[in-house]
Amino acid sequence: MTITDSNNYDKDKKNLILGLTGSVATIKAKLLVEQSSIHFNIIVIPTETSLKFLSDQDLDFISSKCKIYKDKDEWENHVDLIKRSALHIDLRNWAHSILISPCSANTLGKIANGLCDNLLSSLIRAWDYKNKPMIIAPAMNTMMWENPFTNKHIETMRSISSNVFIIDPIQKKLFCGDIGMGAMEEVPKIVDFLINNLK
């Protein structure tokens, strides 16, 4: 499979992968795709857990703007595996950069420890940190954000490469009702960060 064969992309735009993970902030994916697709060619990779936060209408809208690849697509035509390349490698080669937004505590812990048990984390494990930016926008409960492991994982990602950027969460009333730090940064500010740092 060649990614560019099945999609029409604007050659004047940079290619951006948007990774969605199991955080309630995934409900903002539609808005994030809507605003970022003006400036970038987008491919979306949702984890299985992230899909629980997206309605059929959300997925229909996102699909109208860009291609979505799910975990099952990694093993499409598995009988012919030897004759084709791996999807996570194809995606890495296509992309100029990747945005993980929202990045849940679980996914942050996985990637900071080199684990790769789904399409998104396999792509991240195979990422070209020397040449391709990675932007991480964490989103989680305040106590999860303040957990010592979270700080360790954030510092690990920052230490990997100068091409890793963290968009710190903000303080607000969270989905669970708590008020504190941990909410994903507002979508317009994330898109502004992409424009200012990737274009």
UniProtKB/TrEMBL annotation:
InterPro entries attached to this UniProt entry: Flavin_trans-like, Flavoprotein
Stored Gene3D superfamilies: Flavin prenyltransferase-like
One GO location term (cellular component): phosphopantothenoylcysteine decarboxylase complex
Occurrences of domain Flavoprotein (ranges): 14-196
Alphabetized Pfam families for the sequence: Flavoprotein
Family classification: Belongs to the HFCD (homooligomeric flavin containing Cys decarboxylase) superfamily.
Protein name: Flavoprotein domain-containing protein
Gene Ontology molecular function: FMN binding; phosphopantothenoylcysteine decarboxylase activity
Annotated keywords: Coenzyme A biosynthesis
BP GO annotations: coenzyme A biosynthetic process
Top-level taxon in the UniProt lineage: Eukaryota
Species this chain originates from: Dictyostelium firmibasis
Keyword Aminoacyl-tRNA synthetase: no
Keyword Thylakoid assigned: no
